[in-house]
Design goal:
The protein is of the alpha/beta class. It is built from 10 helices and 17 strands.
């Protein structure tokens, strides 16, 4: 037997699995699919919608009387009794019964809708389906018209009116926190009286949940400048039935996939495909900008014919990048620091201890995370690290000492445990902090041109 001169000990460091939360979005469906309520399915291409799309339910009869049509389905229709739901009648004879109507659900197999003229006695009853199926198709058609491979979920809340949808979505998020980052909201929720109160639940700096909302000139004021969670867009009048304009903006936000080779660009002025430019006037443009309502125009001012998004802002007036960057930093600081602690607890070669070196190691990991934020186009400036007591660091922040920089501070071990005597025995360290400015694009340029006439 030969002598063993060198013995090599091996420990394993496992890198964190990158978070996909910010690339996770969902179309909201209210009876537009054959999925059960609260079920979701992933779409990777437009054709994936076809197998789950709701199909027409057979009608047993349609009867007109005094300006009201009563429809009766062959079996229980499943629509909530007493609610007003948009339904589409198709294949009926006479054809005057056909169309999309706001229908009042009056029983398990019956509903009514207003129709001024008498189409005549029904001879072929046709079918009925939730109008949300057509809207869902428009969402997917516009979304997948954009130039890239981005997947999206369809979340089925079950048939119902906007109020029913708001309640159902609240229940879903409560039961499934942190699963979906952003939702594409059906048309009509903007005018629902319960929607603003729902939005107020997601305006905290740590909420990380967003609701992309189509608004009108009559409804945008229902969403206030406190509702950072509900980016708004107004559609052009008379758009094709296959277009859902907000789906293009929604795609652009989900397409962000930060890395040093794939920086996150500003949202404003992004190219959008398959959407219609809003016929903007100066007065309306001023109104929409002041209210932080986004819209589609063309890049004609820059000699570009493509349709583009203006202004890319959230309702609080901050650019989309601001909150996206804030969320990214929260997600990845938590992920990376937890990874450092777990790996440091599973090695005998370089364990992580609650001591000066351990504090330095955690700070270094946070510095690395924020350095990535800069290289990914999410944070402004260069990263520096400081080791100051909390009062000095706070005073420097207030005085603007760190303007234009990304600063990661760690309260020194000895200072921290002296100020927090019970922290060491509990294994708790609250001395890490960072200050930074999210990166953003230019919104407007003013150029001063002076012309002179020489003698």
């Amino acid at each position: 037997m030969t002598n063993q001169i060198v013995t090599v000990n091996v420990s394993q460091t496992i890198a964190p699995t990158p978070s996909k939360l910010q690339r996770t979005g969902a179309f909201i469906s209210q009876g537009g699919t054959n999925l059960a309520a609260n079920a979701k399915t992933l779409l990777t291409q437009l054709s994936d919608l076809t197998p789950i799309l709701a199909t027409g339910q057979a009608l047993a009869s349609l009867a007109w009387s005094g300006g009201t049509v009563t429809g009766t389905t062959s079996t229980a229709h499943g629509y909530p009794n007493g609610q007003t739901i948009s339904l589409t009648i198709a294949g009926a004879t006479p054809s005057g019964y056909n169309g999309t109507y706001n229908c009042t659900i009056t029983g398990t197999t019956t509903f009514t809708y207003a129709l001024v003229g008498n189409p005549g006695a029904e001879t072929v009853p046709g079918t009925v389906v939730s109008a949300n199926a057509a809207q869902l198709t428009a969402m997917a058609t516009t979304f997948f018209a954009q130039p890239g491979q981005v997947s999206v979920y369809v979340l089925e809340l079950g048939p119902g009116d906007a109020a029913h949808g708001v309640t159902a979505l609240q229940a879903y998020i409560t039961a499934n926190p942190g699963v979906i980052y952003s939702y594409l909201i059906p048309r009509g929720w903007d005018a629902e009286s319960t929607y603003p109160a729902f939005l107020h639940n997601y305006n905290s700096t740590t909420a990380k949940t967003y609701f992309y909302t189509t608004v009108t000139l009559a409804s945008y004021s229902n969403i206030t400048n406190l509702d950072k969670c509900a980016p708004m867009l107004i559609e052009a009048p008379g758009i094709p039935s296959t277009e859902f304009t907000m789906a293009a903006m929604f795609w652009t936000t989900l397409n962000a996939n930060p890395s040093s080779a794939n920086k996150v660009p500003p949202l404003s002025y992004s190219y959008l495909v398959g959407v219609t430019a809003y016929p903007i006037t100066n007065s309306v443009a001023t109104t929409l900008k002041a209210a932080n309502v986004n819209y589609v125009t063309t890049g004609a001012e820059g000699g570009i014919s493509n349709t583009i998004l203006v202004w890319g802002n959230m309702p609080d007036g901050r650019p989309w990048n601001y909150w996206y960057s804030t969320d990214w930093s929260q997600i990845n600081l938590e992920l990376d620091l937890a990874n450092e602690i777990i790996n440091g607890s599973n090695t005998s070669i370089n364990p992580l201890y609650y001591n000066p070196d351990g504090v330095n190691r955690l700070q270094a990991r946070a510095v690395k995370t924020m350095t990535n934020a800069v290289s990914y186009g999410l944070a402004l400036g260069q990263v520096i690290q400081t080791q100051l007591d909390p009062d000095t660091f706070a005073a420097n922040v207030s005085a603007g000492v760190y303007a234009g920089q990304v600063v990661v501070n760690a309260v020194p071990f000895s200072t921290y445990v002296a100020q927090n005597p019970s922290a060491y025995s509990q294994g708790e360290y609250d001395g890490l902090a960072a200050v930074y400015t999210p990166a953003r694009g230019f919104a407007q340029i003013i150029f001063n041109l002076n012309v002179t006439d020489f003698a």
